[in-house]
């Protein structure tokens, strides 16, 4: 049974750009397998699922429309749709809270298209194995190919290469770093979407640009 709290530039045609390259493991993967086709059926795509010890036990589902927008009403719709599915499938054997949210401005990067969309902005990347003597990278997103992404360091340390090509297959986790430039770009993109200057399928009015789910909290008993 669950308690639920309801609380982006176009991608180049990179091969497999809309398939997630960073996916879950364990119980999170089981949940993702259940909800991902349901989300797709109502016009959304999964960004990430994560079960944490927040508020006892919380299942966070991070999702968005295919154009990158996500409104408070969208969160409510996704929550109402997924709650009964999760109750029937029952992938978690304990009482938990369900939280649906947008990815936020400093979003996780889970698809090749995410890196293309946010080229030029600063990202933090952790790799699954040692690459160029380390497993943690931070820098501007440069060229994106079918196989990997170039990261141009903005905080180069002695001995580290300033520019590194990171293969997609080695990325364990990646997310944008919140900067003034990113905020301005995200807000500009949101405005362009609302005014129809970026034509996308399923484009809706984006009333919020990355407010965390807790700021949009609504609860009910399932």
TrEMBL record:
GO term, biological process aspect, one: ribosomal small subunit assembly
CDD domains recorded: YlxS_C
Coiled coil: none
Record region (Disordered): 194-222
Record-annotated Ribosome maturation factor RimP C-terminal domain positions: 109-179
Statement: the UniProt record of this protein carries the keyword RNA-binding: no
Classification via SUPFAM superfamilies: YhbC-like, C-terminal domain, YhbC-like, N-terminal domain
Chain ranges of the Ribosome maturation factor RimP N-terminal domain: 34-106
InterPro entries tied to this protein: Ribosome_maturation_RimP, RimP_C, RimP_C_sf, RimP_N, RimP_N_sf
Compartment(s): Cytoplasm
Keywords (A to Z) from UniProt: Cytoplasm, Ribosome biogenesis
Gene Ontology cellular-component terms listed: cytosol
Cytoplasm keyword on record: yes
PANTHER family (alphabetical): RIBOSOME MATURATION FACTOR RIMP
Job description of the protein: Required for maturation of 30S ribosomal subunits.
HAMAP family in UniProt: RimP
Family label: Belongs to the RimP family.
Protein name: Ribosome maturation factor RimP
Protein's organism: Phyllobacterium endophyticum
Organism lineage string: Bacteria, Pseudomonadati, Pseudomonadota, Alphaproteobacteria, Hyphomicrobiales
Gene name, Swiss-Prot/TrEMBL: rimP
């Amino acid at each position: 049974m669950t308690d639920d709290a309801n609380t982006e530039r176009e991608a180049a045609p990179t091969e497999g750009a809309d398939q997630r390259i960073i996916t879950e493991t364990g119980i999170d993967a089981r949940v993702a397998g259940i909800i991902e086709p349901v989300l797709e059926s109502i016009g959304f795509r999964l960004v990430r699922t994560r079960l944490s010890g927040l508020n006892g036990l919380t299942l966070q589902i991070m999702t968005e429309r295919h154009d990158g927008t996500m409104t408070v009403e969208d969160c409510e719709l996704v929550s109402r749709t997924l709650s009964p599915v999760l109750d029937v499938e029952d992938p978690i054997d304990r009482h938990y809270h369900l939280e649906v949210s947008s990815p936020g401005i400093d979003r996780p990067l889970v698809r090749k298209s995410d890196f293309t969309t946010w080229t030029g902005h600063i990202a933090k990347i952790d790799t699954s194995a040692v690459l160029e003597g380390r497993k943690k990278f931070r820098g501007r997103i440069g060229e994106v190919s079918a196989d990997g992404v170039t990261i141009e360091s903005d905080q180069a340390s002695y001995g580290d290469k300033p520019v590194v090509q990171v293969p997609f297959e080695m990325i364990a986790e990646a997310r944008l770093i919140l900067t003034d430039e990113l905020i301005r770009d995200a807000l500009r993109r949101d405005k362009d979407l609302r005014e129809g200057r970026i034509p996308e399928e399923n484009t809706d009015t984006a009333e919020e640009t990355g407010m965390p789910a807790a700021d949009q909290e609504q609860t009910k008993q399932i």
